[in-house]
Amino acid sequence: MKKIMAIGLSALVASTLFAKEIKVGVLQPLTGPIASFGQKTLDGIKLIHSKYSKLPNGDTIKLVIVDNQFDKVQTVNGYKRLASGEKVIAIEGPLASSMALSIKRFAGATKTPTVTQIATNPRVTKGSKYITRACFTDDFQGTVAAKYALKHGLKNAVIVFDMKQDYSVGLAKAFEKAYKQGGGKVLKKLFINSGDKDFNAQVAQIKRLNPAFIYTPIYAPEEGLFLRQLRAAGVKSPVMGGDGIADPGLLMKLAGKAANGVMYTDHFDPAKAPTKLSEEFIKEFKTKYGRLPSAFAATGADGYLLIYNGIKECDTPANTKNFLQFKQCVNNAIRHTKNLEAVTGKLTIDPKTGNPVNKPAVVEQIVDGKTVFKELVQP
């Protein structure tokens, strides 16, 4: 008995002595115009990492966090630093579609497994062997918004989109296509630019057109100011945005009472926990941060779980002796993920496209300062 215990203790000591630290990069906008998105995402990543940082063989995962400032140059530099300088095994991020597109060729060049948790533009993963997505795409998100409007008898619309953001341009196109196919009429497409603060010209045109519906696939900093000016002009048409405004706190801070009634498509609602892990995550998140997790936190956790699961499958002596082989194994494991329990639901990745299979969306509405669940939409 003593001999067995001694052998067991020796194995444990050996495992501890030879345990390795595996680095995973996190590339998020922690400062800049959408810093709140990045901070919420990082909160989710850190919480799930605290639960899943140790691997079965005793190895541990260390997060290497870089702020891309929601800037393409900083995003590329940060990605190169993580992939080539820090020698991370995989990278989670970037968050936004335009940022993810900016590093697309570097992911392929460095053969670095990259998981973007919430970049929805279809081009992000198209043709890429090394970028995997943890969320639905704009093709689906735009269709959800179009069908919602048509279902509620809103047969004509104005689209307001950001010319500088691939996310916004792609989502506007997806909405327009689905809306027209369903019999809706687009009265006008109006563009803005990131950083704009004066939307009176666009508001004047909208007021003249008096649309039944206004679709705004833009980010929260611009959306908040746009809503304030829209409602001040007396325009009462219902407004719906995409997941780029899924930060009710920021939206209400910028728009004030004008945010009331605004709808948006999103990836997750904490009131509708789809898995046991979701329930645990929501409870632990509220305990740690004093608030319910947003979709950014939830998808951030999902992105990390995809990477963790891939590393767990590939963390063998043969792979860890060859860094490139290890990365390729992790990438392959991520791309062949099947029925993984995650925070937003079960995740299965299509290995050919790098996109999740059958990822649903939720429609949310801000009512009297609170987020209200409207409906769940399956693909």
UniProtKB/TrEMBL annotation:
- Give the signal peptide range: 1-19
Keywords tagged on the record: Signal
Give the InterPro entries listed for this entry: BCAA_transport, Leu-bd, Peripla_BP_I
Specify the Leucine-binding protein domain's residue ranges.
21-364
Give the domain of life: Bacteria
Q: Name one Pfam family in it.
A: Peripla_BP_6
| Family annotation (PANTHER family) | LEUCINE-SPECIFIC-BINDING PROTEIN, PERIPLASMIC BINDING PROTEIN OF ABC TRANSPORTER FOR NATURAL AMINO ACIDS
Q: Which family does it belong to?
A: Belongs to the leucine-binding protein family.
Protein's UniProt name: Branched-chain amino acid transport system substrate-binding protein
What organism is this sequence from? Lebetimonas natsushimae
